[in-house]
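Throughout our pipeline, every protein is held as a single compact record rather than as scattered files. Such a record has a labelled line for the sequence and another for the backbone structure tokens. This encoding replaces a full spatial description with a residue-level series of whole-number codes. For reference, a complete record is included directly beneath this paragraph.
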Amino acid sequence: MNRPLSIAAGCLLISLGLIVLKHSQVVTGGTAGLTLTLSYIFDIPFALLFFVINIPFYFIAVIQMGWNFMLSTMISVILVTIMTAADRWLPGFEVNIFIGTILGSVLCGVGLTTLFVNRASLGGVNILALFLQKRYKMNPGTVNFVFDTSIVMLGFYSVGVLQGVLSIASVFIVSTIIGLYKKKILAGTQLAANTPRGTAAG
């Protein structure tokens, strides 16, 4: 599968995972998890909030990882924004909280890993994790877990204690999946950093 299709597939998996988590009343980490939490608190559409929150991180992506990575990240955010917006046209449904936590987290974990391997991300903590791995060889799964757990703590306020505990479990599942592929992710970030700034990678 070529890179554009892989990125699109990763975005689809993440979007499905986020929809499942949302209908399970469970949040996760990263900008996606922060957006889910804020959407619960302020009753703002996820898709709109997700796009706006990621705007500042595009500039960080350019500085730390180059234009190619930034453009791939921007495209990924737009795709997830569009795909998750489709949830408003789906019939109302609920997902068992335990099944939803596992299924949604696995989908997000595999989707994020697919993006990372293909030199893209969903911004926010993802960019920091990839930068720390490239510069200091830190496990991106561990970095995601530490920062995402902090974000999920806010979820206790917005979704309740049980959902908050399961949200931490969601972060653990996503981070573990990402950590399993840290070598492939590192190869992707090194390629992104070494790609000429004005060149589009295929």
